[in-house]
Amino acid sequence: MKNADYEKTIKSLDWTGLRGLLPQIEARDTPGWEPGKAFEYLVPRLFELDGARKVRWPYEIRLHGHIVEQIDGAVEAAGLHCLLECKNEKGPLAIAPLAKMRNQLLRRPAASVGLIFTTSGYTQSAQLLAGYLGSQTILLWYYDEIKLAVDKGRIIPLLEAKYRACVEEGVHDMNTATEGIL
Known about the structure:
The protein is α/β, with parallel strands linked by helices and about 180 residues long. The chain has helices at about 5-10, 15-25, 35-50, 95-105, 125-130, 145-150, 155-170; strands spanning about 55, 60-65, 65-70, 75, 80-85, 115-120, 135-140. The relative contact order is 0.13.
């Protein structure tokens, strides 16, 4: 399928449909989707359904005819402009996705925020690195937060809480699912 087909498919799903898709994503058994694609499209759909001001689906940046970036999506919500990175892998994410996001944020205004979503958690190195990226704000999202957002039909309050914890406490990987936010 092409990106437009994935977008059409995910837009046909409401919260109930996403509740059915999420366990398939977790099991890495998503018929009709290339590996990882269902998750890449689920995350922006969460923001869209929760009323994000702007949602952009996965896209590529080309310079001089060459692909220089592949972005899993972008959202404007809670007054924040965010780039998305979504990983549906078996093992915990190492530092590579954080380094990729840091480089993407370096090409953008300092107020831009990176959101990394995973179904499998993070290595300790990745968690530590997230807090030492200087002016590039990257917030780490866990599977149980995604599940909570799908179950409750809200993700923007979780984004607000994660960003507030990052600003106030310097915590880039607060797990909002354990904080009773929703």
